[in-house]
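Thread: Newbie trying to understand structure tokens

Hi all, I'm a second-year student working on a class project, and my supervisor (Dr. K.) asked me to get a predicted structure for one chain before our next meeting. I've only ever worked with sequences, so writing a 3D structure as a token string is new to me. If someone could post the tokens and maybe explain what I'm looking at, I'd be very grateful. Here's the chain:
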Amino acid sequence: MTTIPPASPASSIPSLTYNQTVRGITEFIEVAIHTILYVRQVYPAELFIRRKKYDTPVFQSRHPALNAYISGAVKALGEELVNGNLDKVVIVIKNKEEKALERFMFSVENMIQVEKFDKDISVEGAMSSLALGQYFRSFLVKLSMIEAQLGQRYLGDDVSFAILMELKDDMKPSLPVGSKEPPPWIPADQQHTTSGASEDAELHVVRAVSTGIINLSLVVQESDIKLGLDSDTERSRLEKGKNRVP
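---
Reply by user tm_fold:
Sure, no problem. This is what the structure looks like when written as tokens:
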């Protein structure tokens, strides 16, 4: 007689380690940056290829130089995250005058302090890697439908973007691991940063996750400049409607 063993209880699923959480968040941010560039049409759709990540469709750039810029920035911010220095990652979309139109802001919060020699040990009470992947999936689904919050607004032909890193307590970027070269960051334009946003900017919450180790949230900010452009566009549309011959 054979018996079927009981299914493993959920409690037997190992919880995340500190380093796993850092790797998971940095990998997700890289995927999210590609997604943002695609859904906000910073580059033509033909530049992207459809892939699958976290069990959901995503779009990845096929341009080598763009991919190198994104992966290099993500690697550097990952080094700040593992040291507990990172506060925010900002993807700013700007116009040809270098004025911020939208800011996609990833905020991180370290919930526990972990010694270097313990960063590969599972943290009691933290979520599992599987659960974190499911949260990342929900982030990406929300991002893919972001126009429902921001509206189908035309940002213009001459838009560009930049990746900004904001550290805690005005800290300076760390030296790259194993390198004596200066950090691959330059000071950001003040009006591109979160502190440079106008009081008239509008904020939209996308998603948040509490891992038990490092918490992550994503919000989108529409600048007063973009909102002013949208108002002008809508006013022009209404004026055209009034002047239309019945």
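A couple of things are worth pointing out once you decode it. Residues 18-39 form the longest helix (22 residues). Strands lie at 48-53, 56-61, 86-94, 100-110, 160-167, 202-210, 214-222. Feel free to ask follow-ups in this thread.
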